[in-house]
Write a structure and sequence with these properties.
heterodimer, A: about 500 residues, alpha/beta, Rossmann fold, Luciferase, domain 3, GMP Synthetase, Chain A, domain 3, 3 domains, nine-stranded mixed sheet, four-stranded parallel sheet, 16 helices, B: mainly beta, six-stranded antiparallel sheet
């Protein structure tokens, strides 16, 4: 069992079909598979123990990913936006590595890895290699991918995904060659993000042509959607927010944006007003919300297009609320909500989200976080409703404990975000002599809108309760996010400490 | 005799079929065209193909036994059909999950 199977099967079934388009150039499954085999030979001969990629989106992604898998060497895509010092620390943890790096920055990094090649050279060598055979190593427990977590709370952890986890995920969620020949998916998430890895694997297994967008901007996204006749996209919440904003400001009619018929979103909590605007902007498009973690090989729950339509059309507040949920677990995945003592909780009671299933690795280089009973504690907080729809409320560590009462930041944030005057906000814990912790609020108000501290406090007191009223409110120009759209609560917390 | 282990890749002894074992019971003899399958890359097993068991295997389809304790993925198509301990495998129903990537 080896993830290279996804590419070897498509190359066997339809070698001449278009697999990937980047910068106007298109490659077939046959070309990519042969290049991956050539890369595998190079990786093996180098004696490296890791294959690292430091680059934006390019055809080198599938070639390095599947080349490393064929050779049985862990693949480690790195975040090119990290500072020198941070990247040096990561390189020290993957020595000896074979590094493929964007030519424009190659000079700075050529000494960081045992072997180093520019992406441009690597593509030219592997894509021109003559036809060859290569037998993949078939160890299901071999590490296929190692991803450093974003480290929003501390030093990055090295999450590992074995062949068996990724193969379980893909086979459990995608049907082989299920895409139509003229379908295309726009991949705008970076290669070092789990969503970037799963996008490559699932699109290739479904035989859906990949269109790469290396640097996201709403203009470029819309232009590629139209120009490349894109049918499917995946976006993180910040991308969808920017797309919706751009559409609203430019007044363009996108109800028929090329051939776009499916938008999947995930990778963070989507503000309800954004998804409502997006549903209005794209009435013909099927929306899917996905929730997953690096440690779970990507998606574990799905809110289907049908769920979106039912929720939008319903007058039942419980059903309508599901528009803000992340849906129900995939068939092979189990979800449970537990309290602090590890006891399972009833529907609608918030606690920590636990997950179990064959795609769940829950493992880091240093240790496995899987409990003796096989469940993985996600450290995400949330609840399930009576029909098993999962609602997220933030990280378990983000819960504000005020005088023994647990307050989820999401309660306060969701309420305020529904006010059109509010662009963005974050509720965090601040130290309090009286309560242990109290609520602090950072809020960004729309230009020209008026909303003062008293009005904010009154709204929260009336709609929630007095314990949720912030002790301190700070008006800000913007909130801090990392490059994949994760709010840096740690930074917001520091403002109030 | 048993030749099934999760994660293993097996090749037909009578045609081009190759499968990957996804899920397997503790023991069982997986055959293609009526002849036992062997680890991919090794010598085919001896035996005459059974013409009644040459319905074919389709690449990308998952095949299961009756209680679904055995599941294999066809990774290379061929003319033989699959059976375990004499019982034919059937195609597992397709996933109907919307694409999330």
């Amino acid at each position: 069992m080896n993830i290279s199977l996804f590419l070897s099967m498509t190359a066997e079934a339809c070698p001449d079909r278009q697999a990937l388009t980047c910068d106007g150039k298109t490659y077939t499954y046959g070309q990519l598979f042969n290049a991956a085999k050539a890369a595998a030979v190079t990786f093996r001969e180098s004696g490296c123990e890791y294959v690292a990629l430091l680059d934006t989106s390019s055809p080198a992604i599938p070639i390095t990913l599947f080349g490393a898998a064929l050779a049985g060497i862990p693949y480690v895509p790195l975040n090119y936006r990290l500072a020198r010092e941070q990247l040096d620390e990561l390189f020290a943890r993957i020595d000896p590595a074979y590094l493929v790096v964007d030519g424009e920055i190659a000079d700075q990094w050529s000494k960081s890895a045992r072997s180093c090649v520019t992406r441009q050279q690597f593509l030219s060598d592997t894509l021109s290699a003559s036809e060859m055979a290569f037998e993949a190593s078939e160890d299901p427990s071999a590490i296929a991918v190692q991803l450093f977590t974003s480290g929003t709370t501390g030093a990055p952890k090295a999450a590992i995904l074995r062949n068996e986890h990724l193969v379980s995920y893909i086979l459990g969620s995608i049907e082989f060659m299920s895409a139509d020949e003229d379908d295309a998916t726009l991949v705008s998430v970076p290669p070092y993000h789990i969503a970037g890895i799963s996008a490559i694997m699932s699109s290739i297994y479904a035989c859906r042509r990949i269109v790469q967008l290396p640097n996201f901007s709403p203009e470029e996204w819309i232009s590629l959607c139209t120009g490349e006749a894109v049918t499917n996209v995946f976006v993180v919440p910040t991308m969808l927010t920017r797309i919706v904003q751009y559409i609203d400001e430019s007044g363009m009619d996108v109800s028929h944006l090329g051939r776009l018929d499916a938008i999947a979103y995930g990778g963070g909590k989507m503000p309800l007003p954004v998804i409502e605007s997006a549903l209005a902007d794209f009435p013909e498009v099927a929306f899917t919300n996905a929730y997953g973690l690096t440690e779970t090989s990507s998606t574990i729950t799905v809110l289907s297009p049908e769920d979106h339509r039912t929720a939008m059309a319903s007058n039942d507040p419980g059903v309508r609320a599901r528009l803000g949920s992340v849906g129900r677990p995939l068939p092979a995945v189990e979800i449970e909500i537990r309290d602090e003592d590890g006891q399972p909780l009833k529907p609608n009671v918030p606690g920590e989200i636990f997950v179990r299933g064959p795609q769940v690795s829950g493992e880091y280089r240093e240790r496995s976080a899987i409990l003796a009973d096989g469940w993985f504690p996600t450290r995400d907080a949330g609840h399930l409703d009576e029909e098993g729809y999962l609602f997220l409320s933030g990280r378990a560590d983000d819960v504000i404990v005020r005088g023994g009462e647990n307050i989820s930041p999401a309660e306060i944030e969701d309420l305020l975000m529904a006010n059109p005057a509010v662009v963005d906000c974050a509720a965090v814990a601040m130290p309090s002599e009286e309560w242990g912790e109290a609520v602090a609020l950072a809020i960004q108000i729309r230009d020209g809108a008026e909303l003062d501290e008293d009005q904010i406090r009154l709204t929260i007191r009336e709609k929630l309760r007095s314990s949720r009223v912030p002790e301190v409110i700070r008006f800000v120009d913007e909130l801090p996010y990392n490059e994949t759209g994760k709010l840096l609560r740690r930074v917001v917390k520091e403002w109030f400490s | 005799m048993s030749n099934i282990k999760p994660g293993q890749k097996l090749a037909s002894s009578v045609c081009s079929t190759e499968v990957m074992v996804i899920k397997a019971p503790t023991a069982g003899l997986l055959c293609c065209g009526g002849v036992e399958m062997v680890a991919a890359g090794s010598e085919p097993a001896s035996g005459e193909k059974d013409d009644a068991l040459m319905g074919g295997c389709q690449i990308g389809k998952r095949y299961v036994n009756e209680d679904q304790s055995l599941e294999v993925l066809c990774v290379k198509a061929g003319e033989g059909s699959l059976s375990v301990d004499g019982a034919a495998l059937t195609i597992k129903e397709a996933n109907k999950i919307p694409s999330t990537d």
